[in-house]
Design a protein that fits this description.
Layout (H helix, E strand, L loop, with lengths): L1 H38 L12 H5 L11 H8 L16 E2 L5 E8 L4 H7 L2 E8 L6 H8 L3 E6 L2 H18 L1 H6 E8 L21 H9 L4 H9 L4 H11 L4 E4 L5 E2 L3 H8 L9 E4 L2 E4 L9 H9 L3 E3 L14 H6 L9 E5 L11 E4 L16 H11 L2 E6 L3 E4 L9 H24 L6
Parallel strand pairs: 3-4, 3-6, 4-5, 8-13, 9-14
Antiparallel strand pairs: 1-2, 2-5, 6-12, 7-14, 8-12, 9-10, 11-13
Helix pairs in contact: 6-8
Protein name: Beta-1,4-glucuronyltransferase 1
GO molecular function, one term: glucuronosyltransferase activity
Membrane topology: Single-pass type II membrane protein
């Protein structure tokens, strides 16, 4: 009987052990499947995959998931957590005391050096959820970049802080060249928070996927606040532009990707220009099909154009946005195309709603910060330049691209409401501009 009971005990122990092992194995399979789903290649939209092989050369060996060793280096202050010393108790108010600005919240390690070595700086602005585009922008630009980011509260600051830390760990061209400025709403002042080991499982190859994973931290209240409150585009544009240290500034949005070798081409072109007063140099912008590879040159861009995989920016959505650039003339001026940047033609058919991306001296009129949200934010500034007597020259063969062929669809109600409010503001703005430059109303 004792032997039988002994065997029963052994059998029960084995059964419990097998059950425990089965449970552990099940958890292992679930975790493995979860990691597999995460490590799958993200969609091509706004990705850096076309440049991935070249990007890996800049990663200094950090091409897989960030491991304990890398995070330990961060905690030992070789790589400090980004923005850990910023104080939100101070800052610079905008004119209406709606937002606080924090200039040079984080300066690129070689930002001063690259600013001295180049004649032009790229200034750009972004919300937190679009920051993944900075990887391709910075890789293509290879020069000083001044980036203004809108932060709405604690959660977005936490996401921003960890994602910029991730970018600086993974990409030397961001760590070296990109300087960040921050704008926050008056009633959404962030506080510092810390989540241990948050970066350990993030892969340097997939910035967009990494950011989307971080964005899940935001709660529904934050998202609802963002939908109800306007995005201060013009505040951010002014903030980014004044963060540049160069004679010339190329002001863009975060999802506008420069063509290859643009900085060196502009470094060669701009000192030789004969126009030194009220001149702006337009960089043509195209939409690129997500299935295409980013064009390395104007001939490659033209091949995509002929195949229907590229077209002028906003051509189908709102043609007046870029129409005055005269893309047809730019595309036909391709015979015997020289490699260095040069003037293709002058803009002669200025349109009221024209919104080109351009390079100019850092003395152009500021973006009027009364325009908050969507509608009349960029074109109002370009309109003032036109009334002030600026000439717009279209450059070639350099260009910029935006991922995705955009389709015309109904605007959300909130966006149309903001557009209507800004339309009324523009009537006041237009009268002021005409009076300032002593021009008659047409």
């Amino acid at each position: 009987m004792k032997i039988s009971a002994h065997f029963k005990c052994i059998g029960l122990f084995v059964l419990i052990l097998l059950t425990a092992l089965n449970i552990l194995w099940t958890f292992y399979l679930i975790e493995t499947e979860s990691r597999s789903r995460y490590n799958n290649k993200p969609t091509t939209h706004h990705r850096i995959a076309p440049q991935l092989a070249a990007l890996e050369e800049h990663n200094e060996g950090i091409t897989g998931p960030l491991n304990d060793t890398v995070f330990e280096k961060n905690s030992q202050h070789k790589f400090r957590l980004a923005f850990d010393n910023i104080s939100f108790e101070t800052g610079r108010w905008d004119n209406q005391r709606i937002y606080k600005m924090y200039d040079f919240a984080l300066v690129g390690d070689k930002f001063v050096k690259t600013s001295l070595e180049n004649i032009v700086c790229l200034a750009t602005q972004s919300s937190v959820e679009r920051l993944y585009s900075l990887t391709q922008v910075a890789y293509q630009w290879k020069g000083p970049i001044s980036t203004a980011v809108f932060i709405a509260g604690d959660e977005e600051f936490l996401i921003f802080q960890y994602f910029v830390t991730y970018l600086r760990l993974c990409f030397t061209f961001i760590r070296d060249n990109v300087t960040f400025h921050i704008a926050v709403p008056n009633k959404k002042k962030p506080i510092h928070r810390y989540i241990p080991n948050l970066l350990k499982s993030f892969d340097c190859k997939y910035p967009e996927q990494t950011l989307r994973r971080l964005l899940k931290i935001r709660n529904p209240d934050t998202l609802r606040w963002r939908l109800k409150n306007e995005y201060p585009q013009n505040h951010l544009r002014n903030l980014a532009r004044k963060g540049c240290q160069n004679k010339y500034v190329f002001l863009t949005d975060i999802d506008i990707i420069p063509s290859s070798n643009m900085v060196s081409q502009l470094n060669n072109f701009l000192p030789s220009v004969k126009c030194s007063y009220k001149c702006a140099y337009v960089i043509p912008t195209f939409e690129i099909d997500n299935r295409a590879k980013f064009p390395a040159s104007k001939p490659e861009l033209m091949r995509l154009y002929r195949k229907g995989l590229a077209r002028p920016f906003h051509e189908k959505v709102f043609i007046y946005n870029q129409y005055a650039t005269n893309f047809s003339l730019w595309l036909t001026n391709s015979s015997n195309e020289i490699e260095r940047a040069h003037i293709s033609h002058v803009v002669t058919n200025f349109e009221f709603l024209y919104e080109p991306f351009y390079v100019a001296f850092d003395d152009v009129p500021a973006h009027d910060e009364r325009f908050i949200g969507y509608g009349f934010t960029r074109n109002s500034q370009v309109y003032e330049m036109y009334i002030a007597g600026y000439t717009f020259f279209v450059l070639s063969p350099i260009f910029t691209c935006h991922w995705g062929l955009q389709q015309k669809k109904a605007r959300p109600v909130w966006r149309e409401q903001q557009n209507n409010i800004n339309r009324k503001r523009f009537e006041i703005f237009k009268n002021e501009i005409l009076a300032r430059y002593r021009r008659k109303r047409s």
